[in-house]
Amino acid sequence: MQEAVALVKDVADAEAASRKLVQEAFGKGSSDNITCVVINNEMIWPGKNAVRKKITPQG
Hints:
Layout: H1 2-8, H2 14-27, H3 41-44, H4 48-55
């Protein structure tokens, strides 16, 4: 899962992120049906990202 997050963490559009993840799965050889759901953490846990930024050494 970390690889998937890293791949799309800078993609702002959910549809574009899901397309990128599906393309990556096919590119890695998947031949099965692929379903992709992209969830915006900020919509589920408002402010969580802001708090995380305050407590990490990166800022």
